[in-house]
Amino acid sequence: QGWKMFAPNPPRGNTMLRVVVTDTEGRQWDMHTDVYAPEKRPIPWLGYTRERKINRRISGGEGGKGTWYQKWHARWWCRHWAIQHGGELPQQVELFKLSYSIPAPQTVFEHGPYDPVVEMRERGRQGSLYVAECATEPEAQPSDEVLARHGLPPSSVPRVERWATLRNKLRAWKKKHGAASDDEAPVD
After folding, report:
1. pLDDT of 125-166, one tens digit each?
2. pLDDT at position 187
3. Contact 156, 88 (CB under 8 A)
4. Residues 6+ apart with CB under 8 A from 56
5. Model pTM score
6. For the residues of the chain, what is the DSSP string, one character each?
7. Are the CB atoms for 17 and 81 separated by under 8 Å?
């Protein structure tokens, strides 16, 4: 049997997502986010989660390059790390794409089944997808309200928000409803 059985787009490689958080002291922590980590195996598992599908989408393995998902996923890790570590924001979060080629059916027929762990170790590739600097990335800092909900003190790091977008939406709303915008406010 050939690859045509899976036409038009047969799977020719396995893709995984690795998240590495760099803390304030410069230490790097692998978050073990996919099946490259021993505790995430074996697949399939008894319970199904959509984690693998989400990781493939973020790493660009399922349609598109995943760039929109990458920045928001990295920002979530910034916020999540801060909440889990007493409100301390990490320096950065980096996303990596790990992949290896699936042996062709003819190769498997001739040499027998392959071990995905060995394939990843011997033929795997890793490439950086996205780096988020947690202190300056928009929406990467937990709000003081969220910190308080977790029993943490307010953050000393200023929160970076997308003010230009919010300001433009407010301006459009005021124009639609006939309210004076801040730019056109009457002078006393």
Report:
1. 999 999 999 999 999 999 999 999 999 999 888 878 765 666
2. 43
3. no
4. 15, 17, 62
5. 0.78
6. --GGGGTTS---EEEEEEEEEE-TTS-EEE---STTSGGG-SSS-SS--SHHHHHHHHTT-SSS--HHHHHHHHHHHHHHHHHHTTT---SEEEEEEEEEEPPPHHHHHHH----HHHHHHHH-EEEEEEEEETTTSTT-S--HHHHHHTT-PPPSSPPP--HHHHHHHHHHHHHHTTPPPGGGPPP-
7. no
